[in-house]
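Forum > Structural Biology > Help requests

Title: Can anyone predict the 3D structure of Protein-glutamate methylesterase/protein-glutamine glutaminase?

Hi all, first post here. I have the sequence for Protein-glutamate methylesterase/protein-glutamine glutaminase but no way to get a structure on my laptop. I'd be grateful if someone could post the structure tokens.
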Amino acid sequence: MAKIRVLVVDDSALMRQMLSKIINATPDLEVVGTAGDPYIAKRKIKELNPDVLTLDVEMPRMDGLAFLRNLMRLHPMPVVMVSALTEKGADTTLQALEYGAIDYVSKPKIDIADTFYEYANEINGKIRMAAEAKVRPLIDNKKLVPVLATLKVAPKFSADIILESTPPAFSRHFKTTEKIVAIGASTGGTEAIKTLLMGMPANAPGIVISQHIPAAFSTSFTHRMNQISAMQVLEAKEGDVILPGHVYIAPGSSHHLLVVRDGARYVCHLDDGQPVNRHRPSVDVLFRSIAQNVGPNAIGVILTGMGDDGARGMKEMHDAGALTIAQDKESSIVWGMPGEAVNWGGVDFILPLQSITPKILFLCESRDKFMQ
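Reply #1:
Sure, ran it for you. Structure tokens for Protein-glutamate methylesterase/protein-glutamine glutaminase below:
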């Protein structure tokens, strides 16, 4: 089989050397070139036509974000960002994902010898995944429908955010406070979650989210989601009561998020146990807690992501009477997690991303859970 051809873009000669060594040590990958700044990278992309680009965030002459934005508008291609896993780096990397980067990895440390193989497996796995992922050109934000949610009030039902394939119109005033929406995602999930939350009214049922994300990114991600959503978006804390109009995001890397019953209320429980399916927070852990403690009062949603985390838990939710939705293959960056959930037989609806929020809201209002 042909090797995946990689162009490494980083202003540090040492980093270019380290990344090249890591990538070239793998039989199915090869570094076809390196570049020390975006201008050299632009020329080498034309000359070498690589399959995947690894891109540093901070570079001379033109920063990585500006280069990425231009690249995804004019010559979209799979990009894996190489970023410092710090709070400052997190905000920049999340913006890179908005511009169309497929995923990100941390910068390798100089003294990487002790963790070389672990790091190599991560970056090489993400390069392989990026080579197979769907890449979409960057759309000028000015051409998008205005985000009603930024007003922090319940938006009116708008035809602008509803596709023809979605259910008929319904009331935006929810009569029940017991419904809970549980969402799981991984690769591509930060942008998919953003799309879902942008369409949610301020009085929507409580939402809990498990997104595979590093601890340093968690606060920045929560803050970004709170800015674009009419709902109040919080990083989940132990004992938080799950209320309508609120979104609770699992803390990155440090804890699993579970939903448990406390009398008549649903509350968040954080567990620092071992990773499940290599992840903490794990979508399976969240979905299993929903199946056990919420049952038919829940709606489960599994979005784009690599791997199979969440597939078993979604099947348990389905068997417990919850309604379940998987993002479709066409709109997913990576149809790993949703595809596995479908294979496990735990999915009621397979929908394009833009149709999921209207479907959630419709199902919350509908007395017949299988009405379409």
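Confidence is low (pLDDT under 50) at residues 141-177, 367-372. The domain at 4-132 is CATH 3.40.50.2300 (Rossmann fold).
Shout if anything looks off.
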